[in-house]
Write a structure and sequence with these properties.
- This protein has three domains: about 45 residues; about 230 residues, MetI-like (MetI-like fold, Orthogonal Bundle); about 130 residues, Immunoglobulin-like (Sandwich), CATH 2.60.40.
- The chain is built from 16 helices and nine strands.
- It is elongated.
- The protein starts with a helix and ends with a helix.
């Protein structure tokens, strides 16, 4: 019995230790064999390009002459690069904050919606669209032509509903027909008129098919005579469909121009104002004796409101950020919603029992408890927006490409998009890598902290 206990409690046999060592080495070898393809791919597709880019950034455009840090110096002297850096900062500051806020609000609201799953699916659906396709969609949506761009069509519709629009933006007077154009776009009689006169004011430049539906022939109105204290006239289209007629004379088939504003002006002041009837006729009554000028204000000929230049130099970056929000809002909502589903419901119910309203619960309980999730979402989006390329390249038109450029697009333009300076492009790539690394390290540490 004593001998048996001594054998069991003593040191293990040398053969057993060697067998365990061989097993561990064999396990490590097998694991290495399984990991080796991934390591080779990682080295070929990530490590080697990074090292090559860093080395290439110290050579000139041709890659034959070592220039040291000249590319990095030139990078911060180039106005286009400074614009790209400024736009990248705008993206980093604005887009992740807006997306995180929208995702948080939508995640909280979706919990109170009956068809929450369908709503989440609808918001997450843009993630299935490639950036190239999304860029084409928003390039069309932002088109300045209201007949093509849906946003400008809506803006023009709202504007015209409240402000109205001129009926004759293309109308103009014939030269030498008694009307003179003013600097403000208005037309006024070349000679003074007095009460008792009848004025035929002929205009051209309006297609017959563009006339208002209630327009009537103007000849009968032109034949009426004015009283002693009134000033009459007719504004008509001095064009006979099918040809014929005489310039400056109201022919039987020539139409009046209704809803045209007309003013009687004396000594620079508007004495009376009226609007033409369906046959283009107008009249001013009760005028004092003296000389007047009849004016057709410039508002009659104002060009139609064309909407907002979404892709102009001033708005192109916010417009592209708007397209980015459309794509990524669902992503932020789903991630934050997953974190929201893990919150302790007893804490929320206890707050409600204590009399806290929904806003207080959201601000003092929900948001603090979701802070780790919100931080991860925010930092992930920061990394993502630093690399944005497709949307900027596709949506921004050529003339404003430099106004919308970010570091990723500038790197491509300098290297392959016409610049052919891969040394400077490599320096831009290194700069972008250095900007992304801190956010990546922060995210990795957050993940490790959450696992512990």
């Amino acid at each position: 019995m004593t001998a048996t206990l001594t054998k069991v409690g003593g040191p293990p046999a040398a053969g057993t230790v060697a067998h365990k060592r061989r097993a561990r080495r064999r396990g490590r070898t097998i694991a290495l064999l399984f990991v080796l393809p991934a390591l080779l791919l990682l080295g070929a597709l990530v490590l080697y390009p990074v090292l090559f880019t860093v080395g290439r950034s110290f050579f000139d455009a041709s890659g034959t002459r070592f220039v040291g840090g000249d590319n990095y110096t030139e990078m911060f002297r180039d106005p286009a690069t400074l614009t790209a850096l400024r736009n990248t900062i705008i993206w980093v500051v604005v887009a992740p904050a807006l997306l995180t806020g929208l995702g948080l609000i939508l995640a909280v609201l979706v919990e109170k919606v009956r068809w929450a799953t369908a709503f989440k699916l609808l918001l997450f659906m843009p993630m299935a669209v490639s950036f190239l396709a999304a860029g084409i969609i928003f390039r069309l949506a932002y088109d300045e032509d209201p007949d093509k761009g849906v946003l400008n069509a809506a803006v023009v519709g709202i504007h015209d509903a409240f402000q109205g629009t001129s009926s004759y933006p293309t109308a103009r007077a014939r030269d030498g027909q008694g009307l003179t154009k003013g600097a403000d776009g208005s037309y006024r009689t070349s000679t003074s008129v007095s009460p008792g006169d009848t004025l035929p004011l002929g205009l051209v430049g309006v297609a017959p098919k563009e006339l208002p539906q209630d327009a009537r022939p103007a000849q009968a109105a032109a034949a009426r005579t004015a009283g002693a204290d009134e000033l009459r006239g007719v504004v008509y289209l001095d064009f006979t469909p099918g040809g014929g007629g005489k310039q400056g004379v109201v022919d039987p088939r020539e139409s009046g121009l209704p809803q045209m504003q007309v003013e009687a002006v004396r000594d620079g002041k508007t004495i009376a104002s009226t609007t033409t009837a369906t046959d283009g006729s107008f009249r001013f009554t009760g005028l004092d004796a003296g000389s007047y000028t009849v004016t057709l204000p410039g508002s009659n000929f104002a060009p139609p409101y064309e909407g907002i230049s979404w892709l102009g130099p001033a708005l192109v970056t916010p417009a592209i950020i708007g397209a980015y929000l459309w794509i990524w809002t669902g992503f932020a909502m789903v991630l934050i919603g997953a974190g929201l589903s893990t919150l302790p419901r007893d804490a929320l119910e206890a707050a409600r029992m204590d009399g806290a309203n929904e806003w207080q619960i959201f601000r003092r309980i929900t948001v603090p408890l979701l802070a780790p999730v919100l931080t991860v979402v925010f930092v992930t989006l920061v990394i993502n927006v630093m690399k944005v390329f497709d949307l900027v390249y596709v949506i921004a038109p050529g003339p404003v490409q430099e106004d919308a450029t970010v570091l990723a697009t500038q790197m491509w333009l300098v290297s392959f998009g016409g610049g052919n300076d891969q040394g400077l492009g490599s320096a831009l790539g290194v700069l972008l890598l250095l900007l992304v690394i801190p956010a990546m390290v922060f995210n990795v540490r957050r993940f490790r902290g959450s696992q512990r």
